[in-house]
Amino acid sequence: MKKLFFAAVALVAIAIAPNTYAQTKMVGGAAMYPTKNIVENAVNSKDHTTLVAAVKAAGLVETLEGTGPFTVFAPTNAAFDKLPAGTVSTLVKPENKATLTKILTYHVVAGRLSAADLMAKVKAGMGKAELTTVQGENLTVMQEGKKLYLVDAKGGKSWITIADVFQSNGVIHVINTVLMPN
């Protein structure tokens, strides 16, 4: 009877494990756990140290640790490196907190929008969809082949390089360019 019980437990563990691991993605060399919130995961990604520093400087940590749900388009360090020299160091200064907050909140949409949700919105919108960011301005989502990209208020384009990094309070889509509001 014990052998039968242990065999049943092993089968259940095998059946559950693939679902658990399938939802845990690697970003910046670190596992992103769906049971952790956006900030708890982001601090472990070596590709998002600039974003984490900016979120801290803007005072948005508590918000992004909240219940949400949020959809965050998370620029990598390489995305921030594309900005003109000195931009990031200037933005994280206390006197520029309002501007930094405006840029960072332009990367956040209320609700949990998976890549499939974004694709559905694009198809329903005849090739593009407008998302309202928590900053208040629109962000355009478009599709090329099977890939999604974003067009910001200034016409800049950013590709979603890693989609559907689910968090306890939302979802992150890693992007390769910082989005700019008006």
TrEMBL record:
Alphabetically ordered keywords of this record: Signal
Family matches, as SUPFAM superfamilies: FAS1 domain
FAS1 domain span: 35-179
Record's GO cellular component terms: extracellular space
Keyword flag Signal: yes
Secretion signal, residue range per the UniProt entry: 1-22
Protein's name in the database: Fasciclin domain-containing protein
